[in-house]
Amino acid sequence: MARVVVCGAMGRMGRAILGALRERPHGLTLSGALEVTGHPLLGQDAFEAAGVGKAGVAVTDDFSGAIAGADVAIDFSHAASSVEHARNASAAGKPIVIGSTGLAPGQVDQVKAAAKGIPCVLSPNMSVGVNLMFKVAADVARVLGDDYDVEIVEVHHRFKKDSPSGTAVKLADVVAGALGREMREAGVYGRKGIVGERTRKEVGVFAVRAGDVVGEHTLIFGGLGERFEITHRAHSRETFARGAVRAAAWVLGKPNGLYDMQDVLGLSKT
Q: Which of 36, 124, 208, 221 could form a disulfide with 228 if both were Cys (CB 3.0 to 4.6 A apart)?
């Protein structure tokens, strides 16, 4: 059994990952559950606190101690702490899977630096379906080319802090790259007022926040006389949790470096 420490264990995604680990999938077992200093659930049994049984593993704020007793870490905390966890995991020589979104370019660079010393999977979305969507989107964009307008609409729950979602950002980068564009030049994030006609090269990205929507992403290719859409809807956080656990099992024993879910699923080779 490979031992896993879950960072951000009492968050929405952390609890889903604990639930996924309860059945010890892929030969993985929970060995540590990390939360921030002062969290009200520190010291409690991780599975009990997440409502998924009893683990015999207490929630702690000691990352160094938790990673020392683990073979791999799964991190769904937040951008700043994910960077710190990547750095500390690298110092401990332990691989890490990071699913936190909202990382700034400089923070991604810090994770890349940490990944020089360990294998690290960094992905804004661990869903198998979403990562297949990335692959298909690039292929479709290359076929349709500049004759079709590209728009992305993402919908998430009211509690989500970053906007647009990391998945929407990745999707925009994938499509823009397939079309030979750069999002820093082509990206349009919302429209208001008299903005004039849509330019042919822009990629629109729009965020909707409502209720308890887990996650929905629609990629629109609009042509004259037709519209082609690709939509992914996450029905529960379990799909992301299962993907994260799969990534944790996959990254064990891999060479040092930065990977994503395309690597985990073998999509980067096709």
A: 221
Question: Does 156 qualify as catalytic in the annotation?
Answer: yes
Q: Which of 160, 170, 217, 232 is catalytic?
A: 160
Catalytic choice (156, 170, 217, 232)? 156
At residue 117 the predicted structure's pLDDT band, cuts being 50, 70 and 90, is: very high
Residues 99 and 14 sit within 8 Å (Cβ to Cβ): no
78 is catalytic: no
Could you tell me the CATH superfamily of domain 128-234?
Dihydrodipicolinate Reductase; domain 2 (3.30.360.10)
Question: Quick one: CATH architecture of 2-122+237-269?
Answer: 3-Layer(aba) Sandwich (3.40)
pLDDT digits (tens, 9 = 90+) for 143-152: 999 999 999 9
